[in-house]
Amino acid sequence: MTETDAETALGYEQARDELVDVVRRLEAGGATLEESLALWERGEELARICRHWLEGARARLDAARSEDGEAGSGGEGSAKEAAGGG
User: Fold this and answer.
1) Cα angle: 31, vertex 46, 11; to 5 degrees
2) Distance of CA 33 to CAs 22, 36, 38, 39, Å?
């Protein structure tokens, strides 16, 4: 599975929930060194997947805001003027 496939295979919520479980297991202790290292590595991968989703969401929000700014330039003033508040 490629890096992109791994990111799309798990949604943000799934990756976040699994990451929370990994952290709990690491904090609980009792795992062998090898198990702890495997958990840590999985946690790093899950954190990267979450970051990827969050960066994508931020980019979409930024794009929507810039579209609103372009389409709405003067829109607020026009709405105020139409309401008699100009």
Assistant:
1) 130
2) 14, 5, 9, 10
Asked if residues 26 and 36 have their Cβ atoms less than 8 Å apart, the reply is yes
Token output for 4: 């992109």
Cα distance between residue 81 and residue 53, in whole Å: 40
Beta-carbon contacts of residue 20 (< 8 Å; ≥ 6 apart): none
Query: Residues near 9 by Cβ (< 8 Å), separated by ≥ 6?
Result: 1
pLDDT at 4 over 80: no
pLDDT digits (tens, 9 = 90+) for 13-66: 999 999 999 999 999 999 999 999 999 999 999 999 999 999 999 999 999 999
The gap between the terminal CA atoms of the chain, to the nearest Å, is 58
